[in-house]
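User: What would this chain look like folded?
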Amino acid sequence: MKLSAFLAAGVAMAAFTFTPHAQAAPATGSAPAAAAATAASTGQYGTWGVDLSTRNDAVKPGDDIQLHASGKWIEATQIPADRASVGSFLEVYERTQNNLQSLITAGPISAGRGTKYGDLYASFMNEKRLETLGLKPLMADLAGVRKIASKRDFSRFMGGTNGGFGAAPFQWDVEADTANPGMNVLWLYQGGIGMPERDYYLKKDFAKQRAAYRAYIVRTLKTIGDKNAVASANAVMAFETAIAQKSWPAADRRDVDKINNPMSTAELAAYAPGIDWAEFWQGAHVPDQKRMIVSEKSAVRDIAAIYAKTPLSTLKAWQMFHIADGAAPWLNKAMIDSRFLYRKTVNGVATILPRWKRGVAMTDSSMGELLGQDYVKAYFPPAAKAKMEALVGNLKLAMTDRINGNEWMGPATKAAAIVKLSRMDVMVGYPDKFRDYSGLKIDAADLYGNVQRASKFNTAYNMDDLGKPVDRMKWAMNPQTINAYNGGLENKIVFPAGILQAPFFAMGADDAVNYGSIGAVIGHEISHGFDDQGRKIDETGKVRDWWTKEDNDRFLAEAKVFGAEYAKFEAAPGLFVNPDLTMGENIADFAGIQVALDAYHKSLGGKPAPVIDGLTGDQRFFLAYAQIWREKTRVDAERSAITTDPHSPGRFRVLGPLPNIEAWYQAFGVKPGDKMYIPPEKRAKIW
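Assistant: Here's the prediction, encoded as structure tokens.
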């Protein structure tokens, strides 16, 4: 798994969270849904930023603040058949997808940019041509596997799969060096499995998904001409299961101390001799490296040994399946439907997304910054960027005060933390310099080729940084992305224009609402620099423990208290939140809320907050925070998230931190006997 796509501890990139494929469009025909529709058109919820029509006043805030804030919405909203969940993030995502479709289909604009991404979208929407072509575009790639005659040749072939269709037992990319964060080095990770995570192969909870995956492998191999498809599928499944048994659990993969394993390519070859590494790197066009980071060290060694024992015939069947699987969305309907038949078991959806939505998502992922240039011109006014930058500045000042006032942190650690915070770069809306896509060839009549070329183009863009200084101005998200992130080894925080919409941010919203929503997002990303993993990275981005032992011990003690609270949250029947996996995000939520509230209080300039609709400023702040996390999720999707996602489910991102914050008790008069009440002496005190 690519480091910046997974780690949630500020090591490379800690995202606030949003997974479009696991979300759902808002329901229609109900009062809460009508309010959401109004927000979609006005860019603001209610008259001042909170959707009061969705509250359930019959539930006391101290019993369940989430149901109090959004109970009517939760009761009335249905998850559509083509989505795995529904919530505030999806409301913003759907709005943005509609805006992107308008841009894509508008015709030639912006000095030809629109022509290029318009042609890519058109190639996807030409279903008649795709049905006529059938599997023809896939045949050359499969033929390349069939002619492989040795493990040596197979190793070289796997090296060439980076950025293309196909698979390898390992994944790799380019990130900043843990010891010299100003330079880019190669990172190597465990890989080789087709289901979302190792637990899908090993735990009884996922027996249904395993059966569906095996059936999908059989169908695919039969379709591409394997006369022994059942036997081949069983061998492929056994190979991937063996890999899963040696793969690291998700919680271990976010621990910077465990994943920071520098080696040279020669040392790697000696440590994990089961694969012909020289051929592998030749296929990947990676020269010998004096220093690289091997993330899941023992897993890489053990997976190489599994590879060495596996017959070439099994490896070829495994490779052909993954080529066909990766290519399926860009082929005919039969291949798409077969793939979806398996994938819907992961998230529990019943129907596939409309084609235009899949086309927009493909275009966005293929040339996001090209599309993003037109998006920000059309939908992100300069005034919004200026207001966001001011908000971030206020949040950084509030974090400075919170560090200085921290009771368990010693003077030396405080001083180092202030230095790190002062050197944390802030990027809002879109990059100062957009990528050049002139070298990417797009043909409106060649979807398969377009996807291959775009993938290779984007992979080359990343790999071109190998051995070069880190460009801190590069973005890891597109401007239209509904998310935010902390750059970790680059010590920066990034807020794309996409998330700067209601209910997260609105120019006309009450200040308490903007601070309770986007302010908490800002505080969350700032706080990643000081969570359980970010605290191991200094102001330059170097992995270095800059805390004293005493401060470290006190921090871990408080984190243990906090984690024990989350371990009691049951996300699905018999399935509880894993605090080891979610700790970094939980701490960032906890700190982010408090920093945002401090900043809101500072913004009042010593004056009392106005009372609006009978609600105090702090009440509006906490209601806004609760409403950005309103969601409903299918059970299968929840199981997947609990297993793979370093973020807690949305409901627990409200119920977890708030009972540890004194201001929340004061805002709503929460008292002993209320269900969420925690005695002061038992509350976690981290930031």
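Residues 579-603 form the longest helix (25 residues). If you want, I can go into more detail on any region.
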